[in-house]
């Protein structure tokens, strides 16, 4: 089994963070997931995923999502799954990533905190 896992990892494409274009992409730049930063950079809105026909069916979109979500998690960011692939396919298949998804509860607690600060001034 270790050989199978190593083989699968060897086949995984290298995903690169292209900060200037705000996307995570394959080294050849053909497949990517684009994002928009919101809430002063605390929230990453995953807006669009693209995989060319020649690379479809290989799990490429999933690898792109993992790269973006791993980045968000390691930088204490939340994500908004605007892209239909992320919201309708990736997250339902990978519920362990739901903890990174932005929620209204987080928004409410942030607003409550700022309201508490204002009331104490």
From TrEMBL:
Q: Which Gene3D superfamilies match?
A: 3.40.630.30
Indicate the segments forming the N-acetyltransferase domain, all copies: 14-102
Q: Which Pfam families match?
A: Acetyltransf_CG
List, alphabetically, the InterPro entries matched.
Answer: Acyl_CoA_acyltransferase, Gcn5-rel_NAT, GNAT_YJDJ
List the PROSITE patterns: GNAT_YJDJ (PS51729)
The source's superkingdom equals Eukaryota
SUPFAM superfamilies assigned to the protein according to its UniProt record, in alphabetical order: Acyl-CoA N-acyltransferases (Nat)
Protein name from the UniProt record: N-acetyltransferase domain-containing protein
Q: Which organism is it from?
A: Hevea brasiliensis
């Amino acid at each position: 089994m270790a050989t199978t896992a190593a083989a699968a990892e060897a086949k995984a494409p290298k995903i690169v963070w292209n900060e200037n274009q705000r996307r995570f992409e394959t080294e050849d730049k053909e497949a990517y997931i684009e994002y928009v930063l919101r809430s002063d950079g605390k929230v990453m809105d995953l807006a669009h995923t693209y995989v060319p026909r020649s690379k479809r069916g290989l799990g490429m979109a999933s690898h792109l999502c993992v790269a973006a979500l791993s980045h968000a998690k390691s930088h204490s960011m939340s994500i908004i799954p605007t892209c239909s692939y992320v919201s309708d396919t990736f997250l339902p298949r990978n519920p362990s990533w739901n903890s990174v998804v932005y929620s209204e509860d987080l928004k409410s607690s942030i607003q409550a905190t700022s309201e508490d600060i204002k009331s104490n001034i």
